[in-house]
Design a protein that fits this description.
The complex is a heterodimer of chains A (about 450) and B (about 70). Chain A has helices at about 5-10, 130-145, 160-170, 185, 190-200, 210-220, 225-235, 255-265, 295-305, 350-365, 385-395, 415, 435, and strands at about 15-20, 25-35, 35-45, 50-55, 70, 100-105, 145-150, 175-180, 200-205, 240-245, 245, 270-275, 315-320, 320-330, 335-340, 350, 395-405, 420-425, 430. Chain A is an alpha/beta fold and about 450 residues long. In chain A, the strands form three sheets. In chain A, strands 6, 7, 8, 9, 10, 11, 12, 13, 14, 15, 17, 18 and 19 form a 13-stranded mixed beta sheet that branches. Chain A has a four-stranded antiparallel beta sheet with strand order 1-2-3-4, covered by helices on one side. In chain A, strands 5-16 form a two-stranded parallel ribbon. Chain B has about 70 residues and is of the alpha+beta class. Chain B has a domain at about 20-65. Chain B is about 20% helix and about 30% strand. Chain B contains two helices and two strands, in the order ββαα. The chains are: A alpha/beta (about 450), B alpha+beta (about 70). The interface of A and B includes residues 340, 344, 345, 359 and 387 of A. Chain B: It comes from Desulfosporosinus hippei DSM 8344. Chain B: InterPro entries: DUF7479, DVU_1557-like.
């Protein structure tokens, strides 16, 4: 039987499909190379032409491949009727099984941010524990015990958050992460302790920079002190923390190196940094300009330039195609970072379910807390014992990664089909992250409930 | 080499290949392009290294998993 490698084919062709930013109709699109940049060019018969920056600079677009052989979900909750992205649930035509399932357990928030795809500040009934249990079970049916991220809104505003974590662990999910702004974790160390006891593995901490002016601009408040306190409280509980900066040109892209240096100062409590270039959702009065975007190769270049070469471009590799990159390192005694050579990727097509499995395993291992109390003094064992090596690989490992979300202007349906981050909708369907958060330029959503 | 004996520093291991004496020493281990130096029993004469089944399925496997990327 011949196996057709659809992802491999799609990534090397310039034609794809996208949506019209005004009417959300599916329209043909083309990836066009102009000098060192790649653009998405598309035409809506009703609303005209659009051109959006996808990629700028080196590593080159052509080199950034991680071809996969599609594997459909274990159980599909929707039928293919209208075609991608209108049948999400997941459908049989989705290429990849789940790496991480997101559960939005509240829509309330204690911040009012300039960039946010959660519906902060609205008053809606929150899902009960019984509803959340149903969501967990849907994830198990569709994808098995994958990694879970509890998100919102701001999930720490729910007083029963430890019970929600405990419920998930009891159902067999081994890695549960909290996506948070960290305010409550900073103010309430008892909550951090309760979350640890409930089985929370990791904190995905919104962290936009090491300068308060950055928080003032993006989040409307000075927050650096609170972020540091949240990290300290997590460190006391041996809870792994991942710093998650939303990168916005002109606001914090100069601070990429500063963020990495800060993360290394707080290592091993901070397990890594996960960069998210800004994308545009909600009501956008003016189409984002090229200068409003920072593309993955620009993030990668900035990492090398702003860390004075501590991290090299060549140590960062494609992960989920053109959506992401990652690099893994062992911090040395002299402060340098030894890259862990990554030969397990990029040597030909991989099965999508195998890649998703590797991602889940890696994330669960790397982003969980390092048990620093178990470090044995070097004097009690040879420095080159297996035990010492295992400890070093676990405790001193540090990861740098990034993921570029898609918005309605740069949406590439081939990329969307390859998505392994899935949001559980209120009805218990699994929707690829970028499809769930996608809106037209007026803020109308395909999947997210209108407020 | 006799794999039934428990590995301790006092055990007088003999090399199954050349009969030489085994002694703890630095051994280079490689996996997925990453090199490490670990201490293991190795033959003073021919360099053959003793890797017990417990080690292969235990700590060595744990190291391998740590190096497998996403």
């Amino acid at each position: 039987m011949e196996t057709r490698d659809e992802c491999l084919i799609s990534t090397t062709e310039s034609f794809t499909e996208s949506l019209c930013p005004e009417c959300l109709q599916r329209i043909p699109a083309q990836r066009v190379v102009q000098e060192d940049a790649v653009y998405m060019v598309k035409h809506c018969p009703e609303h005209g032409d659009y051109q959006t920056l996808l990629w700028r600079g080196s590593p080159q677009w052509e080199s950034w491949l991680r071809p996969t052989i599609p594997t459909p979900p274990i159980e599909c909750f929707t039928q293919v009727e209208r075609g991608c992205p209108f049948d999400c649930g997941l459908c049989r035509e989705h290429y990849k099984t789940t790496c991480t399932a997101l559960l939005e357990i509240t829509q309330r928030c204690n911040l009012n941010c300039r960039v946010c795809f959660a519906n902060a500040g609205t008053e809606l009934d929150e899902p009960s524990l019984a509803v959340i249990e149903g969501w967990y079970k849907k994830v198990l049916a569709a994808s098995g015990p994958v990694n879970i991220q509890l998100s919102g809104g701001e999930p720490t505003l729910r007083d029963d958050l430890p019970e929600i974590v405990e419920l998930g662990r009891g159902l067999g999910f081994n890695f549960i992460q909290l996506n948070t702004n960290g305010l409550r974790l900073a103010e309430d160390p008892v909550l951090v302790s309760r979350l640890k006891k409930a089985g929370l593995s990791s904190v995905f901490l919104q962290f936009d920079g090491t300068e308060d002016s950055i928080y003032q601009t993006i989040r409307g408040r000075k927050l650096l002190g609170l972020k540091a306190k949240a990290i300290e409280n997590c460190a006391q509980q041996e809870m792994g923390v991942v710093l998650v900066p939303t990168l916005i040109p002109g606001i914090n892209t100069h601070n990429i190196g500063g963020i990495l240096k800060f993360a290394l100062e707080k290592h091993p409590a901070v397990r890594g940094v996960h960069f998210q270039p800004v994308s545009y959702f909600g009501r956008i009065l003016k189409e984002p300009l090229d200068s409003d975007r920072i593309t993955l190769p620009e993030v990668i270049q900035a990492i090398e330039e702003q860390t004075d070469g501590l991290i090299k471009v060549g140590n960062l590799k494609p992960h989920n195609g053109r959506c992401s990159f990652s690099g893994n390192f062992i911090r040395q005694r002299d402060g340098s970072l030894k890259p862990i050579v990554n030969n397990s990727c990029c040597n030909g097509p991989e099965r999508a379910d195998e890649l998703a499995r590797k991602t889940r395993t890696f994330v669960a291992r790397q982003w969980s807390g390092a048990e620093t109390l178990k470090i044995q003094p070097l004097s009690t064992q040879p420095s080159n014992s297996w035990d010492n090596l295992i400890q070093q690989l676990k405790i001193y490992a540090f990861s740098i990664s990034g993921m570029a979300f898609q918005d309605v202007w740069n949406l590439d349906i081939e990329r969307l089909k390859n998505c392994c981050i899935h949001v559980v909708s209120p009805e218990g369907k699994l929707i690829p992250f970028c499809a769930y958060n996608l809106t037209d330029k007026f803020g109308h959503s395909i999947y997210r409930r209108e407020r | 080499m006799n794999n039934n004996q428990k590995q301790t520093s006092k055990t007088p291991w003999k090399c199954g290949k050349c009969g030489g004496e085994l002694q703890r020493g630095a051994v280079k281990a490689s996996y997925l392009g990453n090199d490490f130096v670990v201490e293991e029993l190795k033959c003073l004469s021919c360099g053959l290294v003793l890797i017990t089944e417990d080690l292969a399925l235990g700590k060595m496997f744990e190291v391998e998993q740590s190096l497998e990327d996403k």
